[in-house]
Amino acid sequence: MNQPNTNRITKIHARRIWDSRGRPTVEVEVQLADGSIGRGIAPAGASTGSNEAVELRDREQAFGGYGVDRAVANVVREIAPALLGMDAREQRQIDEQLIALDGTPNKSRLGGNALIASSMAVLDAAAKSAGLPLWKYLAGDEPVTLPLPEIQIFGGGAHAGRRVDIQDFLVMPVGASSMDEALAMVAEVYRAAGQLMADAGKRAGVADEGGWWPDFDGNEDALQMLARAIDKAGYRNGEVVISLDIAASEFGRDGIYRPSLEGRDFTTDEWIDVLLGWVAKYPILSIEDPVAEDDTAGMIAFTRAAGTSIQVIGDDFLVTNAQRVRDAAAAHACNAVLIKPNQAGTISETLDALNAAKSLGYSTIVSARSGESECIMISHLSVGWNAGQLKVGSFARSERMAKWNELLRIEEALGGAARYAGLGVLPLK
Questions:
Q1: Residues of the chain with pLDDT > 90: what percent?
Q2: How far is 122 from 366, CA to CA, in rounded Å?
Q3: The sheet that has 37-41: what strands, in order across it?
């Protein structure tokens, strides 16, 4: 006698909820035959690559054009009927159904936000049905590490009204021996940076991702302040290092870079020289999107010039796409990839990009977006997929802290098997 499939999807519901900017986003709820319920919430980026999955927004007067009524309706009217009865454990099969149902190369018909929220909800439901935390459901019997955090101290670029050109000034606690110690170290740096800003009469609140608002006259002023904050917090000898997200596509195009605070335009080679000058002067071990997404030659040149001294991350350049990762590796561009589920549009495509990167010797960094929610799934993805690194934003605002705090719970659950990634996860020699 055949046993009933308790993992069968019996109900899918979607609703409009609100993200960390107070903008609408899509939440999908999936129920299985055994009563398990999974949820997925679509995040949203401010600085986005032109080749990533497209958010479907209503583009009407309400909510400044950011409404998601059409995306929610697409889940209810098209996605739900297509997935009902499918086995939630068959993630790839479900994601392939979503991709085929949308029928466009960039998820623009049904909306990347509708698809990723649905894909995430199915994954969450499957883990709940198995009675496992998501990281364990993903990892199975494979060993895992707690990721090295990349945590924003000053926000900039599109996250802070373009007050400075560089989007993220971050730190990485490479000298920690546990996740608990790593987060405590960042807490001290964040506090020290806030005090230095207050002492200078420049503390003016926080940016989109919780980093201090960048009240600086120049990009390098923020670097100097960050280096001072690390020192003030008592960390020396490379215990805490700097990571930068340049997000150069925001001010560069066709090989010309126009950062507003630098007072001049730069060619690709000139801009690379500026960045390499910062690397020589400050404890920088990672740079993301150093040149614009359309500047492949510049990415190759920067990666070659930086050598193995720093991590060179592709974000807008790679948009969590496995083929783009393979093409970049063949061209010797980058040595690391940012992994953002909503850039890809489904969980399976996200995992494909991560696995492609790993197979080619790239390091991988699971990442949140600037428009986030209370969803903690990426914390579990970073551990369960053994990504090695996690970038969530800053050390403030509950949509960020929920994700960092979840790593502490995972570390505690791992007990004696807990291992912190640390410096060794960076592709350095």
A1: 90
A2: 19
A3: 9-18, 24-32, 37-41
Rounded CA gap, 56 and 114, in Å?
Answer: 8
For 267, the 3-state DSSP assignment is strand
Largest CA distance in the chain: 76
Asked if 171 and 241 count as a contact pair (C-beta separation under 8 A), the reply is yes
The DSSP letter of residue 117 is: H
219 touches 162 (CB < 8 A): no
pLDDT of residue 317: 95
Distance CA 73, CA 49 (A): 26
pLDDT confidence of residue 159: 57
- Residues 272-300 have pLDDT tens digits of 999 999 999 999 999 999 999 999 999 99
Residue 313 tokens, joined: 């991350």
Active site residues: 209, 340
Q: How far apart are the first and last CA of the chain?
A: 59
Backbone torsions φ then ψ of 97, nearest 5 degrees: -65, -40
18-345-314-253 Cα dihedral, nearest 10 degrees: -80
Angle at 73 between CA 58 and CA 57, to 5 degrees: 20
With the C-alpha atoms ordered 296, 300, 306, 309, is the resulting torsion angle positive or negative?
A: positive
Tell me if residue 275 falls in helix, strand or coil: helix
pLDDT at 228: 97
Helix, coil or strand: residue 195 = helix
Contact in structure between 53 and 44 (CB atoms under 8 Å): no
Outline where DSSP puts E strands in 178-278: 241-245, 252-253, 256-257, 266-267
**pTM recorded for the entire structure:** 0.96
Using alpha carbons, list the distances in angstroms from residue 290 to 162, 242, 246, 400.
Answer: 17, 14, 5, 25
Q: Check pLDDT > 90 for residue 396.
A: yes
